[in-house]
Amino acid sequence: MYRILYVDDENYLLDLSKSILEAKGEFVVDTLTSASEALKQHNLQQYDAIISDYQMPEMDGIAFLRAVRERFHTIPFILFTGRGREEIVIEAINNGADYYIQKGGEPKAQYAELIHHLKKAIERRQDQDAIKDSEQRLTDIINFLPDATFAIDRSGRVMVWNRAIEEMTGIPAADMVGKNDYAYAIPFYGERRPMLIDLIDEPDEIISHHYTHIIRDRDLLIAETTLSCPKGKLGILTGTASPLFNCQGESIGAIEAIRDITELKKSEAELQASEEKYRMVVENSHDAIYIYRGSDLLFVNKVASELTGYTHDELLNKNVWDLIHPEDRDRLRESGSRRMGGETLSSIFSARILTKAGDIRIGKFFVDIVSYLGQPAILGILRDVTDQVRAEEELNAANEQLVASSEELKSQFNELAESEQRIRESEVKYRILLDESTDPIFSFFPDGTYRYVNRAFAEGVGKTADEITGKKIWDVFDRDEAEKRFSVLRTVFSSGEGKGFEVRVPRPDGDRYYVTTVIPVKDEAGSVVSAICSSKEITARKSAEEALRQANRKLNLLSGITRHDIINQLSALDGFVELLQRKTSDPALEHYFSKITEASDRISAMIRFSEEYEKIGVLAPAWQDCRTIVDAQVQKAPLGRVRIINDLPPGFTIFADPLIERVIYNLMDNAARYGGKISTVRFFSLERDGNRVIICEDDGIGIPNENKDQIFNVGFGENTGLGLSLSREILDITGITIHENGQPGSGARFEITVPKGAYRFSDCSNQ
Fold first, then answer.
1. What is the architecture of the domain spanning 2-140?
2. Among 72, 458, 477, 592, which residue's CB has the most CB atoms within a 10 Å radius?
3. CA–CA distance, 70 with 96 (Å, rounded to integer)
4. Three-state SS string across 264-287, please?
5. 417: how many CB neighbours lie within 10 A of its CB?
6. pLDDT (tens digit, 9 = 90+) per residue, 400-452?
């Protein structure tokens, strides 16, 4: 219902018009007899439209119109008068009247015309207000974007200059909006020149003259540039540009978002330098270092090739168990499976290995579980102790012969004195190697006294080796740090097993961090008499990790705020679209309302997807009980009449991201939503090729063969097309795969393959 103010100095005409206009209940009409009295109303802006006579005492209709336009701008104004001179009509239109209607003639037709023009003027104003509101909302959204963003029309005139780019350039929007002729390039390059936004349609070879790392993703153009930033620093910026289209698909301009990635590039460079340093240490190690998963070698260093006689590529294509002596193979394979299954075993053991030439070498192994390329694997250090063991065997044989006869005793004594010389020479050689090592290496007696320290350790704590050797740990570090270190030594001396830990070394020039491995040294009776320790400095890595953690925290906070604000704006947009749809009866507009609502829904779905995707990998993978997860999601999924059969065995757990529950929910939801005649969904598992397969099958209409390779792509499907894509990303974190191989017309069948070592049973009877 519209509220109308009608001003006329004829009371009878006011009463008549009020009765006619209010007859159908579409209008509520207030009447006044003078324009000056109307202008005194404090709530004049509450009216949806004003009707006014022209010729009135004190102030005529044209003067009244000017005053209304000056104060209230867009209130619809209809001049309803008996004066029909052409100059009055022209003056009314020039001063902003919406319509001019002449009194007189047949009343029914006259008032029908008045009602028609009233509605038309009001609806036109509402449309204009809605457009302004929409434009303001879009402006607010762009201003909330964290990246510096601007847009231009087809002539190159700046249409948008958001707050982030104001902050980046120091130029307010008021000084830039409306400018053209590449004015927007001046804050960045100091001159008028094309930017990425102007090069969208250019080939990459042209763009590469100004930008690097060029990426095209449909309409998006992404590239990097190095330049003197607006605040005087040399920095690296990444730009993302895209064309803008109207509802008819016609190009109306372009938009570009600019992000300063200087600090990110520095962090990446520092992290890469750290990785290079560790790679150099690994490649120059005197021990063979390798990583394997299942039976596949994933990484080997140079010493591993030298020890086995195989080239680097040959080793990576070799079954790891073929390198182990047959008599030791089953023992090591079993311990590896138990270790991958989560069981705590000794990390130090000995075994024999086979070289490419067929020789048998004796190795001492130091192993542990690590995460490699996002999946659990075993890291091993192999030390060739063949010569040492054989020397010990020779020494034992010599001792036996000494007991047998005096002559043999003399001979063996001489042979032993050659052995001692080799040992002394070996000690000198290894002491030199230890002293020259860049890694801190030291040894302890059980009471905490330093037996030996190399130069790197002494320099790391700001002392000389002589100042430390023979001193106790409390003489070198403060009491808290010393107690922390000695508690690890107590564990090693009492258990007789090696241990690793992270330590902090306070320094005047900044704390340093190390990862230290402690290995016990035992006498012939098996008692621990000392411990050897080696450290790797991880200070740079710790700094990079902390920087990345802070950056991720800030980015997640900012993205959360941005998502919240965008969703609020979308909710307002949906509400105004619904109100607008109620207020118009034009069926030709229904198509556009539908398209606006559809676009809003897709934006909302994308925001929700970004929130779900942001959670992937945030929490560390852990062992998840599959049967319990299925039971829990049955209570949450909108299943309707669909029945869930959970035949997964109790105690069946897999090593996966905590968001695995989202995967199970999506499978149930998709089955109920798209299964058609579906009545039942069943979960069960089976063994296949050493892996464990979790199967979700239903009795619905199935998936057409032509869609099977596309259902896991982002954007494919009848709804948002995000669920299965997200599921595949969640599973891939720990090496789990998913695919669909059901028969079209007979139901869908999703198979989730869990690799060996990434699943286990708490009750073996249920396997």
1. 3-Layer(aba) Sandwich (3.40)
2. 458
3. 10
4. HHHHHHHHHHHHHHHHHHHHCCCC
5. 9
6. 765 567 566 456 556 656 866 665 666 566 667 677 778 888 888 988 899 88
